[in-house]
Design brief:
This protein has about 750 residues and is mostly helical. The protein is about 55% helix and about 0% strand. α2 (about 45-65) runs parallel beside α4 (about 95-110), α10 (about 190-200) packs parallel to α12 and α18 runs parallel beside α20 (about 445-450). The longest helix is centred in the last third of the chain and has 33 residues, at about 510-545. This is CENPI protein.
Length: about 750
């Protein structure tokens, strides 16, 4: 779990119906306009209204396309009218792909005042996709310096925000060097770094670019945006970037979304309210999918804005090229089957939209095969930004979108389960948000994410995870306490599984490094077990030892007791007395049976560890302390004294055990106090004893428990075993020397 990965969405082939994204008439039919609040009655039909608005949009685009001379906004009512039309339609339902070429050209050409250009750029809200040609054409205006620096800056912010709506990226990648030249501008540098971060491929990393970034860092200091780009460069070409960079991910870039994100979200919500079945904002999928908020826009691969004929021509060209070249990239939107992945894995290029990988198992398999760290860095950056922006309890305005955020967290959790690895971006999100979390919002999803936190140092986990979680744990309901314990059990299992996987993959030459890793793992796992033992002890006292809570606590220790044999981890930690004795004296047979099984597994692991220590000629790095054996023996004496020899009050030697003076016991006025907790009189077992007496002596209604002795005692044991108490069975057979039965005559003493 040192490295995390991600899953992705199945890419659907571009269907013929994708023309709905580019054909203006089709876009017009899908759009809806929210009526003014003052208009109650006599509204024109929706189609008529859409036709009218579309007509005015076409007029506005025609006007801006033909404008030549500098026009004053205050003095020209026609300009005001068309500008208002573009803004209104953009905010209501977004602009069609055809509008971007016209509006970008006029905004960046310098023909109009900056006030008009600013309003035009802020109105560039996509309804579906943005043609790459329109973006490339607009970038060309930056070469001639026709627009002001503020307009260039606003254009870059817009380009970053809508980057995932651009249908293709190949021509933009060709402009990488052009964008790189803008790094010398201090105001534009943060946004240029952000754009370059999105565009960077391995072939983009050149020695002269690394030197330029290092020079800028020496001049400006340790700027987060420069560190981000250098980190990506170092992943692609570590031999070129030799400086030490921060290992922890943080918020690298400034928020560049401006008004566009809010407008896109508003359009999606409005379209979903007006048309719950059809989703006009779905980008190029064969079947409509949820497009509620920005994070969800990443779950698919946007379709091209080219028509079907051009698409077929492109595919035919690719088939011809494939016959002669193995370097031609395979379009990710054409990836449909696992066999396609195997055939084209060396030619597959990851999409620029990292969010599109979250629910795509084929791209997930690709990530597992191709050890490209840049993929993970890009994914973590995107997920970190999205989690931070969409968190419903960290951002006040997001509380209305709790269900959408739940879906996103659920997707992140399922992705980690598929990959069997935790995401560092999810870890950092939890560390930042848990102190602010109320324990109710997205409870199930948050606790599931906790179970996939990757291995960290104890100091980090204590302050960022254990402390805030403990505060919520002690002040929340019984159900919440059980949910937290279940989550921490899964976290422990995930760590142990990670250890087993990496242990199997290590060669003999890596023993030294693996020992170092093992030492850290042992320490972190031990702290987690101690933490769970502490909160479990307190919780049992707070809740008055409920059986429901005790089940989850013992379930956790079922994993702990088998760590040595099942997971090959040289660590065993006994449950605290505050857990052991409530389980031993529980009123429920399930809890007692669980405890018996746990103690049996502890014995099996400790015996194996002792034999291993004695048989090894070389000194082992890890040995169980004598305190572990001593504590186990104390617990075993208490259990045998309770369940078998009826001597717990006399022989229990644990400092927090059951030992009491006979005089004190007599004051309780309890009859036969010595046998109160054996397998006949124990509160958890008395129901079985009653049923046994009814079957053995059906005519006796006195329920004389003293009849269960001698041969009847053995019959009673067989009866208990037949009732499914397997934990009790293996405990008695392994830890109690029953001289009366030959099959058990060789059983060892209870002490290891």
């Amino acid at each position: 779990m040192q490295r995390r990965r991600s899953s992705k969405t199945p890419k659907q082939p571009l269907q013929a119906h994708s023309k709905n994204q580019t054909d203006l008439s089709a876009w017009r039919k899908e759009g809806t306009i929210e009526p003014e609040k003052s208009v109650q009655d006599n509204q024109p039909p929706k189609d008529q209204k859409n036709d009218s608005n579309q007509y005015t949009l076409e007029q506005a685009l025609s006007y801006f396309e033909k404008v030549q001379d500098r026009v004053s906004l205050k003095k020209d009512s026609v300009l005001q009218k068309h500008l208002t039309t573009v803004e209104s339609i953009a905010l209501q339902r977004g602009l069609p792909p055809e509008a971007f070429d016209v509006l970008l050209n006029v905004a960046l050409s310098g023909k109009l005042a900056d006030t008009v250009n600013t309003r035009l750029l802020k109105s560039l809200v996509p309804a579906s996709v943005i043609p790459e040609n329109s973006v490339v054409s607009s970038v060309s205006w930056l070469c001639v310096s026709k627009c002001s620096g503020n307009i260039q800056l606003l254009f870059l912010r817009w380009l970053i925000t809508v980057f995932d709506f651009i249908d293709h990226k190949e021509q933009l990648h060709a402009l990488y060097g052009f964008f790189f030249s803008f790094l010398q501008d201090e105001k534009m540098c943060p946004y240029v770094c952000h754009l370059l971060y999105l565009l960077t491929r391995k072939e983009s990393v050149k020695p002269f670019r690394v030197r330029r970034l290092l020079d800028l860092q020496a001049k400006m200091g340790m700027q987060s945006h420069l560190q981000a780009l250098l980190s990506l460069y170092k992943l692609f070409c570590p031999e070129l970037v030799t400086i030490t960079l921060p290992g922890k991910m943080k918020t690298y870039f400034k928020n560049s979304e401006g008004p566009w994100k809010a407008a896109i979200n508003a359009i999606r919500r409005r379209n979903q309210e007006n048309s719950p079945v059809s989703q006009p904002l779905v980008l190029g999928t064969a079947q409509p999918q949820s497009r509620k908020r920005k994070w969800n826009t990443q779950l698919i691969i946007p379709a091209s804005s080219t028509n079907k004929n051009n698409l077929e021509e492109d595919r035919e060209k690719k088939r011809c090229v494939d016959l002669y070249s193995t370097n031609e990239s395979f379009p990710v939107e054409q990836l449909q089957t696992f066999s396609q992945l195997l055939q084209n894995i060396h030619r597959l290029e990851f999409p620029s939209q990292m969010g599109s990988v979250l629910t795509n198992p084929l791209l997930l398999h690709y990530m597992n095969c191709i050890k490209d760290e840049s993929i993970y860095l890009r994914l973590y950056y995107w997920m970190g930004q999205t989690l931070q922006e969409e968190c419903t309890w960290c951002v006040a305005d997001n509380i209305r979108y709790e269900e959408e955020f739940k879906d996103f967290l659920e997707t992140a959790y399922k992705t980690q389960c598929f990959l069997q690895e935790g995401f560092s971006s999810c870890e950092e999100f939890l560390y930042k948000s848990l102190p602010l979390w109320d324990g109710f919002c997205c409870r199930s999803q948050i606790l599931r994410l906790v179970s996939w936190i990757p291995l960290s140092s104890f100091s980090e986990m204590k302050s960022y995870l254990y402390d805030p979680l403990a505060q919520l744990f002690f002040t929340s309901s019984l159900y919440f306490k059980c949910s937290v314990l279940e989550s921490l059990k899964e976290l422990l299992q995930n760590w142990l599984n990670w250890h087993v996987i990496h242990l199997d993959s290590e060669s003999d030459s890596q023993v030294h490094s693996s020992n170092t890793t093992l030492s850290g793992l042992v320490n972190v796992v031990a702290e987690l077990i101690h933490f769970v033992g502490w909160i479990s002890t307190v919780a049992l006292r707070l809740e008055n030892n409920p059986t429901f809570l005790l089940y989850f606590i013992l379930d956790f220790y079922e994993t702990v007791c088998d760590m040595y044999l099942r997971y090959d981890l040289p660590l065993l930690i006994m449950p605290p007395a505050g857990v052991f004795y409530p389980a031993l004296l529980s009123m429920d047979s399930v809890s007692l049976n669980q405890l018996c099984y746990i103690m049996y597994r502890y014995r099996t692991n400790l015996v194996a560890a002792k034999e291993n220590e004695q048989s090894k000629k070389k000194i082992l790095q890890f040995k169980f302390s004598s305190q572990t054996y001593q504590e186990y023996n104390q617990y075993i004496i208490a259990m045998v004294g309770c369940l078998w020899t009826s001597s717990a009050f006399q022989k229990d030697i644990h400092p927090q055990g059951l030992r009491m003076d006979d005089e004190l016991l007599k004051k309780t006025t309890a009859q036969e106090f010595k046998t109160s907790f054996n397998i006949v009189y124990h509160p958890a077992m008395m129901g079985y004893a009653v049923l046994f007496l009814q079957q053995a002596w059906p005519d006796d209604t006195t329920f004389n428990f003293s009849l269960i002795k001698g041969k009847k005692w053995n019959w009673y044991l067989e009866y208990l075993y037949a009732q499914g108490l397997k934990g009790l069975k293996v405990f008695i057979e392994s830890s109690i020397n029953r001289v009366s039965q030959a099959s058990h005559s060789k059983a060892g003493n209870v002490q290891v």
